[in-house]
Design brief:
172 residues; binds zinc ion; globular; HIT family, subunit A; alpha+beta
């Protein structure tokens, strides 16, 4: 059950560059390129499919901000925001992560593939297979609202008081 990433999150690290209640980001110790960032949900989820929608949403927002930070600080020409989802896809740890990789011309990182030309039968078969499973996408898990904090209660009470005061003023 031990997860190296969960341990690292608990212990903390000098290489931490961002943290909020849901996610945390570290500068990668063994990067493809200097400045590569690893962004993680703080809770343990092995693959993307298991990450709740509201955390997945937040991860992509923060990945975008971290990418902007790389542009601003390193004078780079691009970023790859990369998810290796599953061992076959190159996932090295059992804790879901997003890699944010700074890119420059001639950096010798190869994430490209040679495009294949499909024939019509292959095309229609894959279309049918996929559409069967994409028809019902669209229901999203929402974050549970936290219990109201006393501050909010105060506001409500004040509002009620204000309301009463306004009502009183109307009384001749
Ligand atoms: Zn973990």
């Amino acid at each position: 059950m031990a997860c190296k990433i969960c341990d690292k999150i608990k212990k903390g690290s000098k290489l931490k560059i961002y943290e909020d209640e849901k996610v945390i980001a570290f500068i990668e110790e063994k990067p493809a390129v200097l400045g590569q960032i690893t962004l993680l949900p703080k809770e343990h989820f092995p693959i993307l499919e298991q990450v709740p929608d509201f955390i997945a949403n937040h991860l992509i927002v923060i990945a975008n901000k971290l990418s902007s930070a790389l542009f601003d600080s390193l004078n780079i020409q691009g970023t790859n925001i990369l998810i290796n989802n599953g061992v076959t896809a190159g996932q090295k740890q059992s804790h879901f992560s997003i890699n944010i990789i700074p890119r420059n011309e001639n950096d010798n990182i190869n994430l490209e593939w040679k495009p294949k030309q499909l024939d019509e039968e292959e095309m229609s078969t894959i279309e049918l297979k996929l559409k069967e499973h994409t028809a019902h996408i669209g229901a999203f898990e929402k974050e549970k609202k936290q219990k109201p904090i006393p501050e909010t209660k105060k506001e409500v009470i004040q509002d009620e008081e204000n309301y009463l005061v306004k009502q009183l003023r109307r009384i001749p």
